[in-house]
Amino acid sequence: RFISVNDGIDTANEQNGDDLHISLKNLLNDTYCRDISVKIKSQLAVKRKRGDFVGAFAVYGYKKDSDNKNRLVRDDFAAGVVRDIFRLKLEGVSAGDIADRLNEEGVLSPMAYKKAEGLRYATPFSPDGEGLWTASAVLRILKNPVYTGVLAQGKTTAVSFRVKRRVEKPGAEWDVAKNAHEAVISGEDFEVVQKLL
User: Fold this and answer.
1) 52 or 8, higher pLDDT
2) Do residues 81 and 107 touch, judged by C-beta distance below 8 A?
């Protein structure tokens, strides 16, 4: 049974459910959804190319600017943790040992920190829900060029407006903006860490 209150359609009533009318409405609605999807994608692409941040949550070490939500500003506490992680790696400490040190010192992981800041944040990277530092969390930070002031976005795309599954895009198709925000780590230190990794 199909009921559409606004259109006055109820398929339980034989005189009320005109199949052609319903099919035509569905076709128009589908076209409208596709058109909206294209417009939203193109607007987000313009913002990414301009160097605006379009994510829901800022990456660990940054927060959204209170005056402009499309701009990242440094979060002093988290940025200090990021600098410590890079310093330890430059001293030759492994990612697992860095994670252990952070846990021993009681430093909140990125997920726990965002929740402590009052953000409604969920991540697939911590299935246990405890939010402890792990080697993979440390490696994600060490490999992320955002800490050098580079904003790389548009790494994935939806298959279509009907299918929500995301697919990875090749690196050449990413939207990369240099000097988009204040750097936490120098480009030289970042390159040395990448060689160490």
Assistant:
1) 52
2) yes
